[in-house]
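For the sake of transparency, this paper describes our internal protein records without simplification. The record that follows is passed on verbatim for readers who wish to inspect the format:
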Amino acid sequence: MIRYTGILIISLFLFSSGFTQGTSDSLIILPRGALTIAYRGEVVKLSKIGDIVENTPEAYESFRRADANNAAMNGCGLVGGFIIGYQLGSLLGGAEVDEGWIVTTGAGLVFVGLSLGFQMTRNRHLYLTVKKYNESLKPQAGNQKKEMILGFGFQKHGMGINLCF
């Protein structure tokens, strides 16, 4: 009896059930602080998104707009950050505050504000890119059958079932 119990306990540890979800070809916006997009379970950069959506004309056009806004966002943020940092550094170094200092710091703040505007526009175009790309993956006719794949194998926590549909 003890032998059968030992075999049962060992088999439960070796063949514990685990379930996984298969990856799909859709783009997914991850809920993080910054706009993060995943493809097939991996976080992708902006340049990789362009390679993924280049076969979908509407999504690619929206991506190109997002990419242009990304370049403008980075440029304005760099210039504005440099101007503000230079002025604050000179103030810490003992420079006096005069009209030129205030105007230059204000110009830096304007550049940073422009950068934030470009960032919001970029994010909106990236959301549209993801939406249009994912819509293009859906079957157009309602009578098309979806393929379901059932697989068995070792998963993270032991033997598991993988169902993709």
Notes: Residues 99-137 form the longest helix (39 residues). The chain has a mean pLDDT of 82. Residues 20-137 form one domain.
